[in-house]
Amino acid sequence: MLESDHWDGAKMSHVNQKEDIHQHSGWLIPAAFLFAILLLSGLFLGWYLRPGPKTSAAPTDQATLVELNVGTQAFRIPANYIQNSAARSGGTQNSVSLAALFPSWHGYSDAEAKLFAGNAPDSPVVRLSLRGDAHPLQTRDRLARIYQPYILDPQGTSGPFGLTQYGFARNSGYEQQDLFAGEDNGRLLLFLCEQPAPELASPNCLVTDQPLGNSVSLSWRFKRAWLARWRELSLGVNALMARFETKAN
Fold it and tell me: What residue spans define the domains of the chain?
C-alpha cells in the first residue's frame, strides 16, 4: 500500500472522529438542559409534597366568626376551629374540616399548638368533618346496608363501655377494624375503630356519617384510647354543632 494511501486513511479517520464529536456534542447540551429542568421540577415537587403542615393550611388562633354554608345549612364558626384555610374565607363550601380539644372543646391556639400537632395514642384532638350530602343516610340504614353484609354476627356481642361490638369477616376490607354501636338519647352512633397493632400504635375511632339536617353529613374522629368516654364525646360534639349552626329566622 502506498504511503499516500496511509496518509489519506489517517486523514479520513481523523475527519470521522471530528464528525462523531460534533454529532455527540449536538445532543449533549439539550440533554443537560432537560436534565436540569427535570431535577429542579423534582426538587420543587418534593418540597411541595413534603410531610407536615403547609403554610397555606396552617391553623390560626384567630377566633373571628366565619359565615359559611355546607349544603343548605348555614354555619358561623370561629376561624380557629377550621382546619382547611380555604374555608376560612366563608361562603359556600362542599366540605369543612374542624378540630377541637377534648374535653375543653377549645379551638386551636398557639399555646396548645403541640397538642393539635401531636399524634399520641391519647391525643385529645377531635377532628370533625361537615360534608354536603343531598341524601344523607340514616345511621340505622348505614348499619344495615353498608356494614351488615360483612359482619360475622348480625346481633353483635356485648362490648366494652356499654357498647355493642361487631366483628367483620376476613377479606371484607374491614377485618382490621372493630365496629361498635351505642345509643345516645335515642340516637344510634357507629364507631369504626382501628385495631391496635405494632404498626399502628395510635389507632383512631371514626364516628360514621350522621345526618345533620337535610343536606349535611357529620362525621368525627378521635383516638381509640378515649372510647370509654364516648357519651361525653358525643355530648360535646352535639354542643359544638348547636353552637355553630345558624338557625333560620
Answer: 1-51, 59-244
- Alpha-helix residue ranges (DSSP H) falling in 49-155: 113-117, 139-142
Residue that is written with C-alpha cell 356519617 in the block: 209
pLDDT at residue 18 is higher than 60? no
For residue 248, give the C-alpha cell: 333560620
Query: What would the pLDDT profile of 41-94 be if each residue is shown by its tens digit?
Result: 555 445 444 444 343 468 999 999 999 999 999 999 999 999 999 999 999 999
CA 87, CA 103: separation in Å to the nearest integer?
A: 25
pTM of whole model > 0.85? no
Grid coordinates given for 1: 500500500
Q: Is the bond into 103 cis (omega within 30 degrees of 0)?
A: yes
Cα of 121 vs its chain's centroid, Å:
18
**Which three cell numbers, joined as nine digits, stand for 201?**
400504635
Phi, psi for 145 (deg, rounded to 5): -85, -40
Using alpha carbons, select from 164, 161, 157 the residue that is nearest to residue 140: 164
Q: CB-based burial of residue 98 (10 Å sphere; 0-12 exposed, 13-18 middle, 19+ buried)?
A: buried
Predicted confidence (pLDDT) per residue in 212-227, tens digit: 988 999 999 999 999 9
In 10 A of CB 223, how many CB atoms? 21
CA distance 125 to 128: 10
> If we measure between CA atoms, which residue out of 126, 142, 221, 227 comes closest to residue 180?
227
